[in-house]
Amino acid sequence: MARIVVIGAGMGGLAAAARLATVGHKVTLCEAAPTHGGMLGRYERDDFRFDTGPTLLTLPAVYRDLMLKTGRTRLEDEVELRPVDPGSVHLLPDGTRVTLANASLARVGSALDAALGGDAGGRWGAMLERGRGVWEATRRPLLEEPLPDDPSALHRDPYVPARRGLLARAPRTLAEVARRELRDARLTALLDEYALRFGLDPERAPASLTWLPYMEQSFGVWYVTGGLRALADAVLRRCEARRVDLRFGTRVTDVLGGDRVTGVRLADGSVLDADVVVDDRAPAASGGMPGRFTLLLALRGARPADTAHRTVVHAPDRADELDALFGPAPRPCERPTLQLLRPDDATLAPAGHETAVVTVTVPPQGPVDWTDTARVTAYADAVLAQAVQAAPELGERLLWSHARTPADTAAETGAPGGSVPPPSLAGAGGAFLSPSNTGAPAGLYRVGGGAHPGGGLARVGMSATVVAGLVGTP
C-alpha cells in the first residue's frame, strides 16, 4: 500500500483518487479551494443554478468505467444521463439555419444536403470518414495509453487525403482540410467551431482534429440532469466511499524529494509524507491559450417546448474572429462564434422559469484585462445582443445576467490566464501533444486537462485511468 497525495480536486484528481483508493492505496487529496470540481464550478443566485465550466459530456463510457471499477455501479445509477437531441442547431454565417441530429452521421449528412445543397452532406461525411481513420489510428496511443517514451510516431498526422497518389499531399491543417475538401464557407464554419471551442486556431491546428467532429457526431453528446456539477458530486461521493482523506482549503506549495518523491509541503509549512504524488494542477505553460467568456441568463417564464438545447451562432466574419483570437494583438471579437445552451432541466431554476448559458472563446487574462469592469459590461451587452438576434424572446424574458471571464476562471481554478486546456492532437511535429503523465522526480505523476491526453471532460477522465495504471496496485 503506497501513501499517495493527490494535489487538486478537479475531475482528474477526483477520478485518480477514487481509482487508486479502490485498489488499496492510502490516498490523501489536498485542494486549495473550499470545494471540489475544478472547472466544473457552480454559480447560484435567486434559486437559479448554473454550471460555470463544461456543460455537455461526450464519451460517457469513460465515467461509466470509473463508476464500475470503483464501486460496481452504473453511471446511470449515480446521475441521470440524457442524450441531447437534436445534437445542435447552427446559424451559419450567411444566415442559413441547419439542425444536426445527435449520434447519427447519416441524418447529419441528410440535414446538410437539405440545408446547403451541392452534396454538402456528402463532402462533410467523406471528411468525417477520414476523421474516423484518425480516431482508429490514434485512439489507443493518444487517449487510452501513456504517452510513449518516444512519441515521434504521433508527430505525424494520420489524416489521409481525399485523393491518393504520388502527387497527393495530405492537408497539414484543419483550415486546409476545409479549403481542399469542404469548399464551402458554411461547412468551414461548422469545422472551425470544433477548434475554436478549445481555443485552437484552425489555420494552425493539425488536420487530425477531424476526429473530434467524427467522435461527437458518431457517439453523441449527453446531458447530466442538474448540470455537470452533478457528475463532479457523484465522483466526490465515490472518493468518500473509498475513504479518500479529503482536505479542502489545503494548498500544496512544493513537491518534496530528490531523485524520488518523499512528500509535499503545505502552505502552513507542514509536510505530508508520500511515496507517490499525483498533480492535478494546470501547468504554467498553458497560460497563453484562450479562455471562455460566459454569460449566465436567468429567464422569466417556462422554456418553450420546441427549444433546442444547443444553438451555435457562427461569426459572420471568419478572418476577423481569427485575428481577434490569434492575431498579434488579441482582443474580444465584436461578433464571435457563440454557443447558446438552454437545457430542459427543471432542477436549475425556480418553478416556471428557465436558465440559459452563452459561451464565447476569448483571449485569456493578460493579453486582455478581464478585470476591467467597463470592458466586461460592454462585452456582455454585445454578446447578449448577438444571442437575442438568434433567439429574440431572450430579451423579453431576461430577469438578470451574470458575466464570467477568464479572470474568474483563473482565480477559482488556478488555470493560468483562465485558459482552457486543448485536447492532445497528432501531427504538427508533436506541437499539440500534452505533457506526459510522468515527471521528475520519480513517483510524480500529472493528471487532468494539462496532462496527456489533454483537455475536455472525457480526456480528463482518461488521464486518471492512465495514471492509476502507471501507479499500479500495492
From TrEMBL:
Residue span(s) of domain Amine oxidase: 11-278
The name this protein goes by in its record: NAD(P)/FAD-dependent oxidoreductase
Lineage per the UniProt record: Bacteria, Bacillati, Actinomycetota, Actinomycetes, Kitasatosporales
Region Disordered: start-end pairs: 408-432
Pfam families per UniProt: Amino_oxidase (PF01593)
GO molecular function terms attached to this record: oxidoreductase activity
Record InterPro entries: Amino_oxidase, FAD/NAD-bd_sf
Coiled coil: none
